[in-house]
Amino acid sequence: MNVLIVAAKEIHQAIRNRWVLAATLLLAGLALSLSFLGSAPTGNVGVRALDVVIVSLSSLTIFLVPLIALLISHDAIVGEMERGTMLLLLSYPVARWQVLLGKFLGHLAVLAFATCLGYGLAVGALAATGSHIDTDSLLAFMAMIGSSVLLGAAFVAIGYLVSALVRDRGTAAGICIGLWLLLVLIYDMALLGVLALDQGRNISPTALNAMLLSNPTDAYRLINLTGFANVSTFAGMAGLAQSTSLTVPVLLAALLCWTMVPLALAALAFSRREL
Amino acid sequence: MKTVRISGVTKDYGSVKAVRDASFELNEGELVALIGHNGAGKTTLMKLMLGLIRPTGGSIEVLGDNPAAGEFAGRRQLGYLPENVSFDAALTARETQAFYARLKREPVATALDLLDTVGLGAASRRRVGTYSKGMRQRLGLAQALIGRPRVLLLDEPTTGLDPELRQTFYDVIQRLAADGATVLLSSHVLTELEERAGRVIIMNRGIKVADGSIAELRRLAQLPTRIRLKVSGLAPSELPGWAPQDVTCRRLNGHIVEIDAAPERKIELLHRATALGNSVEDVDVVPPSLDELYAHFLRQSEQA
Prior knowledge:
The complex is a heterodimer of chains A (275) and B (304).
Chain A: H1 2-16, H2 19-37, H3 49-73, H4 78-83, H5 85-90, H6 96-128, H7 135-165, H8 169-198, H9 205-213, H10 216-226, H11 229-235, H12 238-243, H13 248-272
Chain B: E1 2-13, E2 16-27, E3 31-35, H1 42-50, E4 57-62, E5 78-81, H2 93-103, H3 108-117, H4 133-144, E6 151-155, H5 163-178, E7 182-186, H6 190-194, E8 199-204, E9 207-212, H7 214-221, E10 225-231, E11 249-251, E12 256-261, H8 266-275, E13 280-286, H9 290-303
Parallel strand pairs in B: 3-7, 3-8, 5-6, 6-7
Antiparallel strand pairs in B: 1-2, 1-4, 8-9, 10-12, 10-13, 11-12
């Protein structure tokens, strides 16, 4: 009950602060422009437009959704402590884990709303302009929306963990930017570099799988680019899809772990903090 | 009935000892003033009672709960107004008040009525971000009063309030105390507390240096009561002849003679002053104020 009260307030605030509006507009704008620009190279004949959109949109999601998630989550705890609102809230009959979970649900709802509406618009626009959309593509697209929300959840949880550990907001923001750069850009480049140097001599497929699972953005990428046969042919990932033994359930479990573990650690760190 | 029990509580922040071995109990229906310098440990004591921080040593019980153990059932009957209270700027006062009422499982409509009690009225539909310090303080009071709390902890509640609202504020908390609530309030404005607080706890550098009603503290302090007499027929620097040698006497201005009277000699001195006929035109008896008592106990604890 307390969790829902806190979540409702968090959503209310996000609407007031125009976070919801900003996130939805950003995602919708990008999804729309990708669905029209993205189909330009393939034309309208033969190729299913939605599959192309999934490939380009999921690549974009990897950059954008973690960024939005970290932006809303990095000051959830340390920011409220600095502003002094946490002091009053915790004097109420509400446990700290309830505050954290409530905020999580609220922020997740905002992110889910923005993603569903923003990306849903892209499908709507494609359908309205007369592109043929079959069930396979639609399923893959819905899976992409779902996994995007899950990716967002993982980064909201990571943001909370940072927020629960540091002393001031500036530090939280700095660490979050660093984490974003690391997980979204640097990790993959480093991985590619290592793989290219190694030429498959020392790194076994199991080790590669472990390395892919230890970054939530890679788990997300694999779900969307290799999870559906119709999409993976466009993604240029068909080769990887055959060589990796990571199935969609394993990848989803990895993303869930990336949400639950940081969230649990954040709750632990928060419960030990003194105000 | 005891609502708050503090026994042997110590709280260290690193090497800083914020509270040292403090013990006291608060009763139902008591209006207690907690006074002390900045950093004397007042806010720390309140945070300990709320369970926001854990004591380094000793034990605390508030409404039957141990607040530091994460038990929070008792907090439903507890009101708190932090020093420098702040709220989420994006929400209006009504939305904020409704949120806090829901957390306490109290009817939202009654909680919203409190906004009128503290005089927010029409402004309560505006965002808190647009509020002045005084208006935020009013909202802070309104949220602390949600659900007729049995224990009210108010940290510097009257800063930023105009005189009229101060009056309303003291009326409200005196009514609550009369109904059996325990009110603990810290303040720097000692003159305000003098007539209102039934009990005073003085803190200095984390140590409780005095605890009792103002009358008890006066007895303990043995500070002189000042008797001011308006006397006619005395030369400007002359002291009245009837004043005993062992009593300090001074002239304040052309007409006033001030005598420092030990509490037990007050009546004797008044008798002497009036015994000699009609040279005394007016009398004022000024007992030591809370300010003076506070200064006295601080000096005493510094010397100890």
